[in-house]
Design brief:
The chain contains 11 helices and 8 strands. The protein has an 8-stranded parallel β-barrel, surrounded by 6 helices. Helix 5 links the parallel strand 3 and strand 4. The longest helix has 17 residues. 46% of the residues are buried. Bound molecules: 3-methyl-2-oxobutanoic acid. The site of 3-methyl-2-oxobutanoic acid has 10 residues, from loops.
Length: 254
């Protein structure tokens, strides 16, 4: 268990020293349980919309829902850095980005994440100028899944490769403490990792990132109806729970 409080700067300094392990957490018991393992970065991701709230994708998640889950997670007072996602359409302008980032911080978040690169740079700069640590997110952007028509690997064509590198460099120069790379083709994720001075945290982007992040439900099998291809669950918790419930029912004679 980590006994020291992890800051955004501590995550930034892990580059080149230790792999950054990061997981999602959306409530008090999960945050407390994961924190006891020593994972240094926990994200109240808008994936909560899919694996907890039953939405088809993350575009339905509201600020109020994010605040509710951030509050629950923050009550666990984790030593891990607690970051939270700015939900869909909550950062359309620098003013909205700062106001909503402040709402997440008031709920207990210690950093915020938003999806995009140079297209949201004024928002990122405004969040950082307000003193709120920022985690970037490039590659497949789940908040764009409806307009893009699916979850597709990014970086295979030259235009995407060049755009990803320019976006990563822009976020690093702006002062982000790390960048999540989602579904970026592994050679491009490796190249970005070599080129920027802050940690890249991959999800479905190959082994060469500075760290990895997973949706905890995928890792522990609590959302068994869909598991991304790049995740091998370490435990099948839903099946184990169903076995326990069936055993209890049979002991009961139900
Ligand atoms: O919402 C989320 O859980 C995320 C991670 C998958 C990176 O953004």
């Amino acid at each position: 268990m980590t006994t020291v409080k992890i800051t955004a700067d501590a995550i930034r300094k892990m580059k080149g020293r230790t792999k950054v392990a990061a997981l999602t957490a959306y409530d008090y018991p999960m945050t407390r349980m994961l924190d006891e393992t020593g994972v240094p970065l926990l994200l109240v991701g808008d994936s909560v919309g899919m694996v907890v709230l039953g939405y088809p994708d993350t575009t339905h998640v509201t600020m109020e829902e994010m605040e509710h889950h951030v509050r629950a997670s923050a009550r666990a007072k984790p030593n891990a850095l607690l970051a939270a996602d700015l939900p869909f359409k909550s950062y359309e302008t620098p003013e909205a980005a700062v106001a909503n980032a402040r709402r997440l911080v008031a709920a207990g978040a210690e950093a915020v994440k938003a999806e995009g690169g140079r297209n949201i740079l004024p928002q990122v700069q405004a969040i950082l100028a307000a003193g709120i640590p920022f985690l970037g997110h490039l590659g497949m952007l789940p908040q764009h899944v409806v307009e893009e028509g699916g979850y597709r690997i990014k970086g295979k064509i030259q235009k995407e490769h060049d755009a990803l590198l320019a976006d990563a460099e822009a976020l690093a120069a702006a002062g982000a403490f790390g960048i999540v790379l989602e579904l970026v083709t592994p050679p491009v994720a490796a190249e970005i990792t070599r080129r920027i001075a802050i940690p890249t945290i991959g999800i479905g982007s190959g082994p060469d990132c500075d760290g990895q992040i997973l949706v905890t439900h995928d890792l522990v099998g609590t959302f068994p109806w869909f598991t991304p291809r790049f995740v091998k669950p370490k435990v099948h918790s839903a099946a184990n729970m169903q076995t326990a419930v069936r055993e209890w029912m049979s002991e009961l004679g139900a």
